[in-house]
Amino acid sequence: MTAGYHEYRLRLIAMAPVHIGSGETYTAKNYIYENENYYFPNMGKMYLKLRQYPGVVEAFEKFLVNPSRRSNRLVDFLHQYKIMDRDFGGYKIPKTGHESARRGHLNEIHAFVKNGYGNAYIPGSSLKGALRTILVNEHFGNDNIAWGGVDDIFNEIRVSDSEPIPVDKLRIVQKWDLNRKKFEPKGLPLFREAIRPQTRIDFTITTTTARAEKLIDQLPQMAKRFYERYERQFLCDFPDKYVQPNHFLAPLYLGAGSGLWTKVDYGHVDLRGIQRRSYKKMKLKGKGVMKLTRYKRQSLKRIENGKQVKYMLINNDDHYYEMGKCGFKLQKKN
């Protein structure tokens, strides 16, 4: 075996909702809210089924392309034509009760990335980006980093896509911002499909050189140091009740909505430049707001000294989580 060639299993545990976007969005024309569920039908299968109803297909085509219709909700269209069939494939996501929506009606919902079989998954590139942030901050610092061309150290660290994640692990969550002045979370009309807390997701990391192996061996320790840096730089300005404990896991933030300071190179970040380039309505003020979302209170359980111990994921009674908060365990396979 080539020196430095090793495989690791990284088990990621979602400690808060996590969103990896596919770039697609669902509008009210693409989903049905009924019976406390958001149903995302297979639109192709729905079209074929509607062909059984005379005149409906033509109306359906107009419904999809005409933005000026009085009703733009798919559920209203089906009710109008008295179509009770809901066997259109696709999947359902149960309502959590923490979406601040009027009777279940949301704005656009940002879709989670899915594979060709319809299962959610986390691309290896997403996790690798989070690991790279940790390594750049805690190992390389201001040093010249060996990347680019044939001497790219990150080419020597390969991260697989995750194992498939069943869609029953998905929930719809809302974006909440917490600023430093009022410390009152503000709900925004932005909704995402997200992996629910407690979900466990496995990846394989492969190193191909000794220097890459050395880095990955130290990854959990560096993740903890990076979290301490993030805590000093940003989290310490906010009430403790909104900051989630790490418990027995190495901390990591993943996906959209976790905030600027979970993703940047602290040694080279140009905060003023970011502020200048931001759109006026989205202008970064100070260090920015804390990124939250809401979900029911959950806990992690594990056996310690022969007894089951429960670790609560949040420290508040208002169901606020840090968006994208995860923990991980790393095991060397060989």
TrEMBL record:
Select a single GO molecular function from the record's annotations and give it.
Answer: RNA binding
Q: Does the keyword RNA-binding apply?
A: yes
- Keywords, alphabetical: Antiviral defense, RNA-binding
> Which ranges form a coiled coil?
none
Residue span(s) of domain CRISPR type III-associated protein: 15-221
**UniProt entry tagged with the keyword RNA-binding:** yes
Q: Name one Pfam family in it.
A: RAMPs
Q: Which domain of life is it from?
A: Bacteria
What biological processes does GO assign it?
defense response to virus
Which InterPro entries does UniProt cross-reference here?
CRISPR-assoc_Csm5, RAMP_III_fam
- Cite the NCBIfam families for this sequence: cas_TM1807_csm5
Q: Which family does it belong to?
A: Belongs to the CRISPR-associated Csm5 family.
Q: What does this protein do?
A: This subunit might be involved in maturation of a crRNA intermediate to its mature form.
For this entry, the protein name equals CRISPR system Cms protein Csm5
What organism does the record attribute this protein to?
Limosilactobacillus allomucosae
